């Protein structure tokens, strides 16, 4: 799951709805404010970067550990990429200075440990100039923030990875270096961080979204894996589908969903259960699920009560304790961790 800089979707309603479903901003853009409004642009960039890198690390583990369960799989480098063209005018100069970004050229924001990007010795601040001799497109300068230019370059990288190992030309501290990426199979969903002060996350069949506020609320990587695992579960269970024609995710009833996973008709309950398995399979601790939900209820009164799609936080915590016990029993007996 490569990380894209901007929006996310998650586990509670797809989203934590008692948090009501979120409306994501225009894809890929970094607003000048939102989520860290009390900070100046340079500090907001620092905060966003730390969250992006953390989300990328957790998403990568979830993605590679659950490839066999994901309906959509692709060859991935495991990195998080960004570009100067994504940033608002207020933040762009800081991003360019800190990360040596140039227009729409993909910059490496994060290369999680163990990922193909890390094994190829790529670093934060590297800028990808070409893949297999095909140059990335830098785009025009001085434009308003937009994502399309970076998206086109990412598509070139993805196409190269689909054919196998790829040779990259990378600019690092003013020097061009060459490296070879050996991509690996991973769940084929983009992950996006959405600068927002709403506690919110969702999935749309193509991507996972999480707000900066919710990512910040997650105190540990285990907490973050719980949230992202729930959202990934929505896509694994085919609760959301992506329409290339309509250009948006739709809620669907998946006819091909494994009846053992979809016996309970409530999508959120299904995603809670399967998501806990997904995080456990990635090596995260499922025992944090119930305490997380109880802590979340202390901070957000809306999740203390049931909604149309979601049980109350207390009920979800109790149910997840039962799922945790189920996982521990399978581990003790040597059974595979399949939901």
Automatic annotation (TrEMBL):
PROSITE patterns noted in UniProt: PROKAR_LIPOPROTEIN
InterPro entries according to UniProt: Mito/Outer_Membr_Metalloprot (IPR051156), PDZ_sf (IPR036034), Peptidase_M48 (IPR001915)
Pfam families on file: Peptidase_M48 (PF01435)
Entries under Gene3D superfamilies matching the protein: 2.30.42.10
Peptidase M48 domain residues: 189-240
Keywords linked to the UniProt accession: Hydrolase, Metal-binding, Metalloprotease, Protease, Signal, Zinc
Cofactor note: Binds 1 zinc ion per subunit.
Signal peptide residues on this chain, from the entry's feature table: 1-21
Cofactor: Zn(2+)
Family: Belongs to the peptidase M48 family.
Protein name stated in the entry: Peptidase M48 domain-containing protein
Naturally occurring in which organism (per UniProt): Brevundimonas kwangchunensis
